Amino acid sequence: MPLRQYCAFIVLVFLGMLLSGVIFISSNQMSCKQAVIDRIFPLLQYNQPSVLSGRTDVVPISSWLAPIIWDGTFDPKLIDSIYIPHNIKIVTTVFALGKYTRFLQDFLESAEEHYFSGYRVHYYLFTDQPEAVPSVKMNENHTLTVRKVPSLDRWQDISMGRMEILENLIANELIHEADYMFCLDVDTKFYGRWGAESLGHLVGVIHPWFFDYPRDSFSYERRPESQAFIPAGEGDYYYTAAAFGGVLEEVYRLTKTCHEQLRVDRENNIEAVWHEESHLNKYFLYNKPTKLLSPEYLWRDINASAGQIKVVRFSHVAKNNAEVRPNL
Ligand SMILES: CC(=O)N[C@H]1[C@@H](OP(=O)(O)OP(=O)(O)OC[C@H]2O[C@@H](n3ccc(=O)[nH]c3=O)[C@H](O)[C@@H]2O)O[C@H](CO)[C@H](O)[C@@H]1O
Ligand SMILES: [Mn+2]
Hints:
CATH architecture: Alpha-Beta Complex
Family: Belongs to the glycosyltransferase 6 family.
Bound molecules: uridine-diphosphate-N-acetylgalactosamine, manganese (II) ion
Number of domains: 1
Shape: elongated
Strand order of the largest sheet: 1-9-7-8-5-2-3-4
Order of helices and strands: HEHEHEEHEEEEHHEEH
CATH topology: Spore Coat Polysaccharide Biosynthesis Protein SpsA, Chain A
Binding site for Mn(2+): 185, 187
Binding site for an alpha-L-fucosyl-(1->2)-beta-D-galactosyl derivative: 207, 277
Strand content: 15-25%
CATH class: Alpha Beta
Helix content: 25-40%
Number of helices: 7
Largest sheet: 8 strands, mixed
Structural class: alpha/beta
Membrane topology: Single-pass type II membrane protein
Transmembrane segments: 7-25
């Protein structure tokens, strides 16, 4: 090859390499820039919220403007995109005394499948038999603390005694530990997502038996001698004591008040018809929950059905009360 042609060839090869280098660097810079944009403004695709269409078979808001959470009223992906970056922590309490330890395996395993996946969760489990707590594999960021409590002879005392234990737990340990708290029954199982859509300042769950009843059929305490008394003609919803929650300060106020009312009733030799559940209903009547969870969040039995319940997220399990309770 003549020298001139050879030199021209070398120059062309060099220019080619230079050009591809420039293209490589600039495309790399572009993708870095894109990564930064993606991080600041993540592209989240979700259906446009509508002011005109949505569920019409249930009411998604209370008359004091607290949302009532039903399937189809929220977008789970959108909810998570809002809450997950805040790195919140949810304390969850559960009690298993006497024969109720048999419910723990299903409760914990199903919770690890469906309850606040991707969030920080700290379970506090109160039991009279720490050795009977099954070992269940926890998700990352989920932890379990077992606390021993004395056995009691009456199931009603176990159920009511939860208010005092929770009040003390919050006051002594939790105020600076977590953001939110839920207090749950153990004779239950999760079947579907229970996530950040349930979070609120003060959260009540509508009882699965009474959601379609008129208020005068609710099983409120009707004797004026009890601190849980609610007169006829009053009441909003009938709430379950098997699940309630909120921010720590609110759950503290709730448990402290119910504990105090239970104490006064005991001094007056009266026990409300549905124990702490009656007191909880009184509390929620005069301290309105800021968010209400539909009976999807505590259904009566996975095999029972109702047209309005599109998803069962959490449900009581069938149990033989006479066999599992220490007394009748
Ligand atoms: C659906 C619903 O609203 N459930 C409530 C209802 O009946 P339940 O029949 O659901 O009450 P229950 O027998 O589940 O007792 C409540 C909870 O106390 C604990 N426990 C009870 C007995 C025992 O021997 N060991 C033990 O650990 C356990 O965490 C249990 O989940 O009424 C109770 C009080 O009247 C509570 O208010 C429950 O939350
Ligand atoms: Mn129960």
